[in-house]
Structure formats: structure tokens, C-alpha cells
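Q: Here's a chain of 88 amino acids. Please give me its 3D structure as C-alpha cells.
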Amino acid sequence: MLQVIIEVEHKSKMVDFLLDFGLEDFYSFGLQQYLSKELLLDDKEKVDGYRECICFMLLLDNGKKKLKKALRENFNTVRIVESKIDKA
């Protein structure tokens, strides 16, 4: 499983990218990234204390390496977390 985290304003671009990449089934949910005030970009973030993000959960058996490379080439601020899921 890959979890791909990006800023919320890139959600549509990421959905299009994943579909164009050939993924037909994935999940997304909203996140808040809490940071120090110095790392937050705009006034709204500084008042709220967090940045809005989206996490895409991708259940993949093959092609992780190719997808991770493509994600990093197309999204400058993407964060990728890889983990294993036990199959029951």
C-alpha cells in the first residue's frame, strides 16, 4: 500500500494523474498537517495552525517503484509512505 499526501489544492490534478497512470481504484481522505507558524505559508494557515492536505490510499501489488518515481517527477511537494498489508 502507498499513501500519497499532497496539499488539498492539488487534489484534482492528483486524481487525473492516478487515473491516467492506469489506477482504477483508490481512496482519498482529508488531513490537517500541523506545523510551526514559521513553516505555514499564508495568513489563514497561520491563524488555524495547520495546512489542509489530502491523503490518497493506493492498494498496489505491482508497479510501486515506477509510480513513486512518476509522482516525484510530477508533484514537487508529494510525501509517499509505503506499508504492507497482511492479506487474511
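Q: Can you summarize the key feature?
A: The radius of gyration is 14 Å.
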